[in-house]
User: Fold these one by one.
Assistant:
Number 1:
Amino acid sequence: MTAATAIEVRDLTKVYGKVRAVDSVTFTVEPGRVTGFLGPNGAGKSTTMRLVLGLDRPTSGTATIGGRPYATLTEPLRQVGALLDAGAAHGSRTARGHLAALAASNRIPDRRVAEVLEMTGIAKAADRRVKTFSLGMRQRLGIAAALLGDPPVLMLDEPSNGLDPEGIIWIRELLRQLAGEGRTVLVSSHLMGETAAFAEHLIVLGRGQVLADTPMKDFIASRVRPRVRVRTSEDERLRALLKEHGYDPVRSDDGRWHVDDAEVDAIGPLAARAGIPILELAAEEATLEQAYLDLTASATEFTAVPQEA
Ligand SMILES: Nc1ncnc2c1ncn2[C@@H]1O[C@H](COP(=O)(O)OP(=O)(O)OP(=O)(O)O)[C@@H](O)[C@H]1O
């Protein structure tokens, strides 16, 4: 049975001229977890989100929320919170004025305005005109607007855009918290590393098509070969030990060893038992991003080819 707040996309297609921006896309976004929506530029993420929100008409197929098209929802801000374009607020309005107008048109109590200003960290700037806001502050205001109706479904397009490092940590925690409360949370991004920090589930688009729809941990387990970086004062002993245990260490110019298909949990104790001093031991971070880039490589190449208008 479908959850009452799942986002369901079925055989969705959107054609602009000769571009199949979204090409027979089918997926379900389930409540209670953050779903990362990844894909290179032009993959069709924003178009898919616009179609779900009824901002554009599909060429064919359907997109529903809790089984209903967005356009048929009553008081939609109470059901679906969306961040699509951080520039959407009127520049001459204050942040508080912008949110108050949205609240009034959706029968949302005015006190909720102060709550979301607080939640998104812009309460101090609430009475400034939006045109004086930095990109990061606009982004926070967009998130405040999405949260205004306390909706069970959230769709956020690149919410980390323009946020400083502290803001990026804040948004990660917010997304996890919202999903933990049982909400349906779909978040688009270009960056796998960033997405892995908050998403439990992953949908990857490329060239308008679904390339992967999988729990994050399965994506990592099936596509990411664990790799370890290690440095020692006893290179030859470490190399011999690793070889003896079936690893194939490769030494780089900076003196570090890189070991494919190895985990720190295995290498650390192995070296310790052999009495080999370890000066540095780390899992290589880049491999998840690399797995994502490999998956989308062919789709990216296609978009780099000039297309007929
Ligand atoms: N209104 C439009 N008219 C014509 N083509 C469009 C329109 N909107 C999107 N496209 C095209 O559809 C394709 C998908 O674009 P979309 O913005 O959905 O991708 P995206 O994955 O969100 O990319 P980005 O990460 O760059 O935002 C692109 O080739 C884009 O040029």
Number 2:
Amino acid sequence: MGRKKILEMRDLSVSFRTSQGSVEAIRGVNLDLYKGETLAIVGESGSGKSVTVKTIMGILANNQKLNSGVIDYKYEQNGQMTSIDLLKISKKEMRRKFNGKRIAMVFQDPMTSLNPTMTIGDQIMEGMFIHYKTPKNEARQKALSLLELVGINNGEERLGQYPHQLSGGMRQRIVIAIALACDPEILICDEPTTALDVTIQAKILELIKAIQEKTGIAVIYITHDLGVVAKVADYVNVMYAGRIIERGTVDDIFYDPKHPYTWGLLSAMPDVNTKSDKLYAIPGNPPNLAHHKQGDPFYVRNEYALNIDKRIDPPVFQVSDTHYVASWLMHNNAPKIEMPPELQERLERMKLEASQYD
Ligand SMILES: Nc1ncnc2c1ncn2[C@@H]1O[C@H](COP(=O)(O)OP(=O)(O)OP(=O)(O)O)[C@@H](O)[C@H]1O
């Protein structure tokens, strides 16, 4: 059976009106999401990951302006495949038909997404009542099986408890159970493990993977941590200053990265052989997009930058069927540049370690 595309984003451009002028936060982003697969969006803080996924969910800030784009969501209704541009529907329609029902989101901090005054049970069942008018008994049974799915014991007792009675890791499991309550087809996870300690983080990642295997849900995972990406993703989109600057399969990105920014992110990734004081950091800071005028915004931080980068933002070059890179270094006339030897060694080592697990 072939892959089934369920979400296609094309040329999404979003800006924000601010006192400093217009911030071009998202600049021509394309994304493709397939049933049962995990797409990761990775990049430093401020690169545009959250705005991209919030736009899919129809969560828009008051000063946000949509400059262009299509977000085509393909779904089944009454036994027939249909599709809709999520950017063309009203907030009301989005809430009634899609948000929380077919497309659900798990945020970074469980405390901000949970209601402290409502029991866990009422919060898990709320969406079922609103979207499907599920009878109370049935909703309760489903809430219990969702608790089991997310690895929480003593379901009966937990349903009557309040968020403050649970640990951070447990709360994030509850948030995932709430997100899954209406059997969504797409689960968007925005750094869902950042607020948790490392062992709990690993457990939540495993949990999301196990749920995906069971339910066939498609996942968009946003993170600044390539270590997380390696664990969860099938496809990776590397984002910088509101653009996808490299995308490919997880192997393309980890074993054959082409963009110097991706090299920087990979070099900055902690691994067992790297002492934290030796960790590489990409020089400089992400650009202020209110001041960006022309050229590649990565120019000033890029030790491999070419003169043309100063003037013209690079187009996207195709490396293979799955691998695309927005960098002038991929142009036929560009000087041939290899990734730093330390990174090359590190990737070789990772490859070897990964093959031992196969
Ligand atoms: N309401 C807003 N008004 C002005 N600028 C905004 C607003 N929301 C986001 N931005 C800007 O848009 C850009 C992208 O922000 P976004 O939150 O998507 O980044 P991110 O990659 O998700 O970062 P993080 O990892 O910190 O969440 C940033 O420059 C941010 O300052």
